[in-house]
Amino acid sequence: MIELDQVQKSYQVGDRAIPALKPTDLTIDTGEVFGIVGHSGAGKSTLVRLINLLERPTGGRVLVDGENVTHYDAAELRAFRRKVGMIFQHFNLLSSRTVADNIAFPMKLAGIYSKAEIRSRVAELLALVSLTDQGNKYPSQLSGGQKQRVGVARALACRPTILLCDEATSALDPQTTQSVLRLLAEINRELGLTIVLITHEMDVVRRICDRVAVMDGGEIVESGPVTDVFLHPEHPTTRDFVFESENIDREELERDFNQASGRILRLTFRGESTYKPLLGHVARASGVDFSILSGRIDHIKDTPYGQLTLSLVGGDLEKAMAEFDAADVHVEVVR
Amino acid sequence: MMESLLGNVDWMEIGWASWDTLVMVGMSLLFSVVIGLPTGVLLFLTGKRQLLEQPVAYAILSFVVNVLRSVPFIILLIVMIPVTVMIIGTSLGVAGAIPPLVAGGAPFFARLVETSLREVDRGIIEATQAMGANVRQIVLGALLPEALPGIIAGITVTAITLVSYAAMSGVVGGGGLGDLAIRFGYQRFQTDVMVITVALLVVFVQLLQMLGDRLVLYFSRK
Ligand SMILES: Nc1ncnc2c1ncn2[C@@H]1O[C@H](COP(=O)(O)OP(=O)(O)O)[C@@H](O)[C@H]1O
Ligand SMILES: [Mg+2]
């Protein structure tokens, strides 16, 4: 478990202190995939770098599994960092070492593994990230997705319990992003690793995160389970991110709404209710007529969800609302 | 034909002078690297926003390096004479030329090392730090290997600079091709000796550059 207790960070630039992270409380549970989403400059990297103390906090405490890591001395800190893997947007592989040597590097630094242990671990990791034949290549000979796989393998070398990902897919194309995210999800599932994942794409959060925090201007403005934050965003920044990820043009949506008559409702189905033949049933029971203005059915991690925006005319609106409620469908009255 | 054109050239003498130049450049290059490499690493590490940021140490080190680099080499040759006599026992000949050459070469090389270390992506340092490396491991395991092509290019440039410095040292009684050029080519107007020594220096520099470029290419994995 990672706990931030009133952690803050400001950078001294000249004689001014620039607050990159305002005092922040945050708890990340063991074994979860925690997303941190925000625009560039929101303070995401600062937050995640405070966890492995690449940055020293200017206030507050960082607790990992109950231990205050901000008080560690140099040797304790190095030992702690071996238990926290990290991957980066630009991979940060050593160009002078082969793929296998890059993966072996953290183990060599640790100085506690035998040559044989290192060799077998490297082979195991190469297999895990599907790069078994590429061990003798140099990073410059690999594609972006392959480089990030090497980054993942390297981060896992010393069997960490936490994996920090700073924009790990931001330099990759959509397909490669998918495959790296799948790899991360698999690692999370099979090794029980806690993953903290920074991104500026809500879609990445939707695919693999359990919980998410939205950052803006050096603070967390909204956080919670991804399904809640994603389906019912509260803060304007969060709404922007969600709309952006769903490719929704808000002005266009407005225009569509203006052309529709009657009440406009947004229905949110989650889990099982997503697949139930509900609309016909409600229409018959309440006598309302409806037309669909927009709709989407997708997954948040493993949870299926659907969101429908309807305009309703005629019939018994109260009754329809009650039916939706009874079926566990969340109803938001848009107009 | 050759006899009359190159009548003054004593090939034995040229041979020995070439060997002396080789020894002077080789030895001074060795010491320049041995002194300049750690100095360059220290300059880098103590610099602004680096791992061992130390403004005072950096300022002092940087000042010494700048002074040595801004003194024209011919002046350095002269002011180094007492120091050289103290270390070597004489300021003359091949051995006597080496201390001033190192005094000129080491700070030059140190700056080149600092520059090539600065060109290593910060992300590499960060990643290595995040793995739990200490400063020594970061320098030896990540920084120097990543900067190796740049450092080899730096050694090449330093070697070539030392060739010309070594030739200059002939003025104050150092040995080698420069000495030959001055004693025969300049003082006795033996143009042929001058031409041959210059030609040999040119060839020497060319060979060094070619070798350096090959090595840089070999060690570049980018
Ligand atoms: N080393 C630094 N010195 C000064 N300001 C910094 C430094 N690192 C980050 N900042 C500032 O802190 C803020 C947050 O940066 P960062 O955490 O990198 O944001 P993000 O990762 O969300 O893009 C930005 O305004 C940035 O300019
Ligand atoms: Mg960032």
From TrEMBL, chain A:
Keywords: Amino-acid transport, ATP-binding, Cell inner membrane, Cell membrane, Membrane, Nucleotide-binding, Translocase, Transport
SMART domains listed in its UniProt record: AAA, NIL
PROSITE patterns on file: ABC_TRANSPORTER_1, ABC_TRANSPORTER_2
Record has Oxidoreductase as a keyword: no
Subcellular location, principal: membrane
Source organism superkingdom: Bacteria
Single GO MF descriptor: ATP binding
Subcellular location: Cell inner membrane
InterPro entries: AAA+_ATPase (IPR003593), ABC_transporter-like_ATP-bd (IPR003439), ABC_transporter-like_CS (IPR017871), ACT-like_dom_sf (IPR045865), MetN_ABC (IPR041701), MetN_ABC_transporter-like (IPR050086), NIL_domain (IPR018449), P-loop_NTPase (IPR027417)
Residues in ABC transporter domain copies: 2-242
A Pfam family per the record: NIL
Topological category with respect to the lipid bilayer: Peripheral membrane protein
Protein name: Methionine import ATP-binding protein MetN 2
TrEMBL record, chain B:
Superkingdom: Bacteria
Transmembrane segments: 22-45, 57-81, 87-110, 193-212
Major localisation: membrane
InterPro entries (UniProt xref): AA_ABC_Transporter_Permease, MetI-like, MetI-like_sf
Signal sequence extent: none
Keywords noted in UniProt: Cell membrane, Membrane, Transmembrane, Transmembrane helix, Transport
Subcellular location: Cell membrane
Membrane topology: Multi-pass membrane protein
Residue span(s) of domain ABC transmembrane type-1: 18-212
Pfam families documented for this protein: BPD_transp_1
Family in the record: Belongs to the binding-protein-dependent transport system permease family.
Listed name of the protein: D-methionine ABC transporter
The organism of origin for this protein: Marinobacter zhanjiangensis
